[in-house]
Amino acid sequence: MKTKLKFLIKQSLDKKMKTKWFKVANILIAICIIGIANIDRIITLFGGDFEEKREIVVLDQLGKYDIFEQSFHNIATSVEEMKNFEIKKSNDSLDKITKELNQDNDQIIIVLKQDPNEYITTEMISFDPVDTITYQLVLTALNQVKSSIVLETSGLSANEIMSLTSPVNILKTVTNEEAKNAESKDMISSGLILVFIVPFFFLITMLTQMIGAEINDEKSTRGMEIIISNVSPKIHFISKITASTLFVLIQGLLLIVYSIAAYVIRGLLSATGVISVSGEIAETFSSIWNTVVETGILELLLKGLPFILILFIVSFLLYAILAGVLASMTTSIEDYQQLQTPLMIILLVGYYIAIMASQFDGAIFVKIVSYIPMLSFLVAPVIYMLGQTALWELGLSTIISIGFCILFFYYGLRIYKVGILNYSSSKLWKKIFKSMHQKN
Question: What is the pLDDT of residues 3-13, one digit of tens each?
Fold first, then answer.
């Protein structure tokens, strides 16, 4: 029995992995991941420059350049845009600077002029239209310059004017201990969705399609009759579930390898070259580690990791069992794809609930969904890491999924035995319901 099971698992894995299409698909996936992670480097290689700062040249006829520069710097830094700009003062004539504007010298010229009624008038000159963010940054800085001019005419001292025009510092104090790190937790949760939920969504979709295609292929070629004549339907069913689950887990590990390779290549393509790779990786992981430790996410993750891993694996098995049962009921891949549609809808529902979980803190509906098998692996880990549920609730979701998986395998095997050698859709549902009362 064990020998036959191992043989079928090995044969199924070889059929999936020792093919040209598997190799080609993984090469394309690796190229896509590396390409997306290094898209800015690629564009730079073909003439683009993401690191070049746009110059803002100021022609100051008011003597307020220092105020404008400081105001722009404070505002742009607060919105993390200062790295994109470089401000400098010019004593050249307006005509000379304007004539130098072209596609290669895409400067922004700001002319500060005195106005007897409005205190200040300005002119913005550029080769291409100025984007909205840059315009708003310049406008806000100019308004602060105008405010400083108005204040100067009020008879206030330089220190008083500086105090009035300087940005307000806000000291944030949160009395709710559990909510102090809510912002960081939301960031970590978003990272979990991108790093774990999206790949698992992709892998489960691949899993259900793969099992259906393989079983229908064996049925359409009549190879199923030869296989079932040598092994029991139970062994065949288990082999399909195990082999397909192992395959998607291997594919998941390959995705991790491709992501690491993409990050390393990004370091190699950076301006400082190979030397920067280890330092950049160490700095990034150090920053992530400090954030995880400070927010208490690490403690939650370490406590819940065993349940999360078990929940993911059980969910793979659950979807594999369901896909195998549905495939056994159909006589062609077209019929299976129609039955597969409800599975995709269920996956999408769980995916969108997981994404929106942070917006519905404490919602009973979300907690209920986290206990539903086939949805819990998407929702339960996310709301646990958000602090909306306790460890025991994550464990309960895992136990329910395990129990449902065992129960579904028990009754699914009965349907599988009837459907696997069935080549007619007539009275199929009657046969299925009848098989539910038969013993395995």
Answer: 777 878 888 88
